[in-house]
Amino acid sequence: IYHHWQICVASELVPLPLLDIDVPIMILHLIGNVIPQYLCISAVFVLTTECPSLTASLVLTFRKFLSLLFSIWFFQNPFTVAHWVGTCMVFCGIILFSDIPGYMEERRQMIKKKSA
Fold first, then answer.
1. How does strand 21-24 pair with strand 13-16?
2. Were both Cys, which of 26, 36, 100, 113 would link to 8 (CB 3.0–4.6 Å)?
3. Model confidence pLDDT, tens digit, residues 51-79
4. Kind and range of the H or E element at 14?
5. Local structure of 23: helix, strand or coil
6. 59-68 long-range contacts, Cβ below 8 Å, gap at least 24?
7. Which residues pair with 21 in a beta bridge?
8. Sign of the CA dihedral 42, 43, 48, 54?
């Protein structure tokens, strides 16, 4: 760890205009990674206290799926058949878990009762 910290500190210096100091660019990258990670894990802790574990797991899986799609787009990788299969599986799982078909049927029954 110490060796890699030395590499990090020895990286190219970048000026910070508001603070009028030079900071190694790898330190900026590290800070830019740590802060969003902290915010993300804090949100996960809140999610797990407010929702059942299965719901939290579903939300986190969907978040990872969106991260994967962003990565494919950002790095300009091809979206293969395997990606489409995975996409279909993610959305089918979300629909089945959230019981959207049951909700839609319940809604139809309610509309029929109101019109009758």
1. antiparallel
2. 26
3. 887 778 778 888 888 888 888 889 998 88
4. strand 13-16
5. strand
6. 61/90, 61/93, 62/90, 62/94, 65/90
7. 16
8. negative
Joined together, the tokens standing for residue 62 give: 């969907």
Cβ contacts of residue 88 below 8 Å, gap of 6+?
A: none
11 has pLDDT over 90: yes
Say how far apart CA 91 and CA 93 lie, in whole Å.
5
Half-sphere exposure of 19 (CA within 13 A, CB side): 6
The sign one gets for the Cα dihedral 1, 63, 66, 77 is positive
State the pTM of this model: 0.58
pLDDT digits (tens, 9 = 90+) for 35-54: 999 998 999 899 888 888 77
Distances (CA, A) of 1 to 9, 36, 79: 12, 22, 36
